[in-house]
Amino acid sequence: MNKNYKYYILIFALSALCFFFIFKGVSLITNNSIEKQLKALNYNKQTIELIIDYDLTNYLIENDIYSKTLEVALLEGNYIADNLTDYIYFEYKNYDKYIEHLNGLKAIGYRNDEINHIFEHLNQNEIDQIIDQTGIIPNLTNYITDQYFDINNLERYILYKNDNTNYSYEKVINYVNMNLDYNFYEKIEKTKNPDSNIVIVNKYYYLDKDFIPKNLQSFGTKYAINNDIKATKPVIDAFIAIANDAKSINLTIKVVSGYRSYDSQEAVYKRYVDRDGEEKANTYSAKPGHSEHQTGLALDIYNTVLSFSNFEKTVEYAWVKNNAHRYGFIVRYPLNKEDITGYKYEPWHIRYVGEEIATYIYENNITFDEYYAKFLK
Question: What does pTM read for this prediction?
Answer without folding.
Answer: 0.87
